[in-house]
Amino acid sequence: RRVHGDCLFPNTMLRAALSRHNVFLRPLTRNASAQSRLYSDYDKAASSDVKDYERQLAGHPSLLSLGIKNRNVLRNLSVPELYEIGLSVRQPVDSDTRPTIITSTGALAAYSGLKTGRSPTEKRVVDEPAAKDIWWGKVNLKLDERSYNINKHRAIDYLNSRPRLYVQDGYAGWDPKYRIKVRVITCRSYHALFMRNMMIKPTAEELVTDFKEGADYVIYNAGEFPANKLTTGMTSTTSVDVNFGKRELVILGTQYAGEMKKGVFSIMHYLMPQKGVLSLHASANEGVNGDVTLLFGLSGTGKTTLSADPKRRLIGDDEHCWSDDGVFNIEGGCYAKCIGLTAEKEPEIYNAIKFGSVLENVMLDNHTREVDYNDVSITENTRASYPLEYIPGAKLPAIGGQPKNIIFLTCDAFGVLPPVSKLTPEQAMYHFISGYTAKVAGTEIGVKEPQATFSACFGEAFLVFHPAMYAEMLAEKMKQHSANAWLINTGWSGGQYGVGKRMSLPYTRAIIDAIHSGELLNAPSKKLPVFNMDVPTKCTGVPDEILWPSSTWKNKAEYDSTLAKLGGMFAKNFEAYASKSSEAIRNAGPKA
After folding, report:
1. Quick one: CA dihedral 465, 242, 219, 256, positive or negative?
2. Distance of alpha carbon 542 from alpha carbon 75, whole angstroms
């Protein structure tokens, strides 16, 4: 790279640089209009000479085999390069998407347009021989091969029409024995940076040796371009399609970056169980003595917050696998919710939002570029993506031993569950299959009072096989390694949402500390009515009355009726899974 002031590289130099290095090269300029002209000249140079184009792609036959014929492919750019091009050139096509900007802490603030969250009702799996054991239904919608091919070619045609493409290569899974190679092809620089953070970054040597002939799975992200609603099987202009036989994922009609991350997770949910490895929607950390804890929880339960414990080393915040050798993280980064984020409450996450991080759909001051994490005018689902190494004390490589404690987190908005309960193995399986948390009033249109939400295995939307299969694998591994199971309520105490108060974060941390120290294993306890769970009645750092939930309610009769009501909701939900669950697991549920 050379500094030429306001000068431009001649087109011939650009073509030569592109041909020699196949990377994005540009001089640094002080003049914005010159910089704009430079990119324009660069794109023209990259597309004007057919011979140069052929030479460029000759060294990468894997892209041609995927149908990628775009003449301006930028492969595995560095963070500064992705910043430069993202800020200066590639503005979103979608008129509903804001331009990318840089924040006061150096993070890249990007915007995903109309879709600010996942579209679970648009996730489809191609019905072909490799999908014979799929758990078909509302989670995995069938898509015929013809419709898939229409969507795939629609995505490829759009990608080939763009001024430039980004190719990002990476691994899923830290254990070399089980990791897979993933290639992302996208037309937004923010998507490339996001997946650079979220995947495990190959070394320069690995990029040459492992990815020369391609990857195990390919993601075609044409999210700026809609699906055709007239295509058989389409219900909207959004479609996220996985083809396990062809090892591909196609994204149309949504620019939300989380679709790529969770698409890879679904792929691991398909591949790992076939190798005897349990894939889990859980965070993991490790104590100073090597003891590993898995924390399960749906959005808003505190999984990411509680896993970033300054007294323990973070293995990962969201997606893991449990093999015969121990636990390993699937990802190379973290994807944390940002709503209400403060340095005081969550310093590890707050300080990780810096140069190289991606902030998604946040609002910030137009002048200072300081982010307002309380502003939800775009969405309540504001997010931050950052590399795992941005968390102080994170364990790298992100691999741990056999888990000692399994913690199920729930945000009980009815306020009737204890802050902590000890589970039997059968109760652990019941609650794992149930995956309970609650919505509160105001979070969705029409929600006037707390509503129970159940998501099998604490991640139903990402499952590929029946939940009972994952539960049986978890039970076997817990039994084999003598792991203890706990249910922790991070929701309400003293009454339901609107009456009681949210459980204190310091209390929850004190409870988890007591689990790790072994204190709660020997603590006195008593049975919770209806749910029949053992509830510790003593815990260092937590008032006794908080530990027994009915003692925090003014109206004890109302507490009893609400507890019974919630138990009935559990029983009703479990009816869908009862036929494939053992009698011991069925009997471990609440008795309303």
Report:
1. negative
2. 52
Q: Could you tell me how far CA 236 lies from the centroid of its own chain?
A: 23
Question: What CA–CA distance (Å, rounded) separates 153 from 156?
Answer: 5
Q: What is the 3-state secondary structure (H, E, C) of 397-465?
A: CCEECCEEEEEEEECCCCCCCCCEEEECHHHHHHHHHHCEEEECCCCCCCCCCCEEEECHHHCHHHCCC
Element (H, E) at 326: strand 326-329
Strand partners, 166: 74, 186
**Selection from 419, 411, 495 nearest residue 453 by Cα:** 411
If 0-12 CB within 10 Å is exposed, 13-18 middle and 19+ buried, where does residue 232 land? exposed
Burial class, 451, CB count within 10 angstroms (exposed 0-12 / middle 13-18 / buried 19+): middle
Q: How far apart are CA 421 and CA 210, in angstroms?
A: 47
Question: How far is Cα 363 from Cα 378, in angstroms, rounded to an integer?
Answer: 8
187, amino acid identity: C
Task: Give DSSP secondary structure letters for 492-547.
Answer: EESSSTTTSEEPPHHHHHHHHHHHHHTGGGGS-EEEPTTT--EEES--TTS-HHHH
Please report the pLDDT score of residue 265 as a whole number. Answer: 98
Q: Are 183 and 217 in contact (CB under 8 A)?
A: yes
Q: What is the DSSP letter of 588?
A: T
Q: pLDDT value at position 354?
A: 98
Q: How many CB atoms lie within 10 A of CB 107?
A: 24
Instruction: Record the tokens describing residue 132, joined without a space.
Output: 């014979």
Q: Which residue reads 């706990």 in tokens?
A: 486
Q: Round to whole Å and give the CA distance between 433 and 272.
A: 19
Please name which of 278, 321, 263, 337 lies closest in space to residue 469, comparing C-alpha atoms. Answer: 278
Other C-beta atoms closer than 10 Å to the C-beta of 211 total 21
Taking the chain (592 residues) in consecutive chunks of 10 residues, what is each chunk's mean pLDDT? 32 40 40 40 40 45 88 94 82 71 96 92 96 95 98 98 96 98 96 98 94 95 97 97 98 97 98 97 95 92 88 95 98 94 92 98 96 95 96 95 98 96 96 90 50 93 94 94 97 94 95 97 96 97 97 96 96 93 92 80
Beta bridge partners of 520: none
Give dist(CA 547, CA 535) in Å, integer: 8
End-to-end CA distance of the chain: 71
Among all chains, which residue has been given the structure tokens 């694998």?
473
Planar angle of CA 97, 101, 103, nearest 5 degrees: 130
Pairing of strands 403-410, 484-489: parallel
Integer Cα distance of 171 and 198 in angstroms: 9
Q: Which residues are catalytic?
A: 118, 262, 281, 299, 303-304, 318, 383
Specify the pLDDT at position 85.
87
With contact defined as beta carbons under 8 Å apart, do 183 and 215 qualify? yes
Q: How many CB atoms lie within 10 A of CB 120?
A: 14
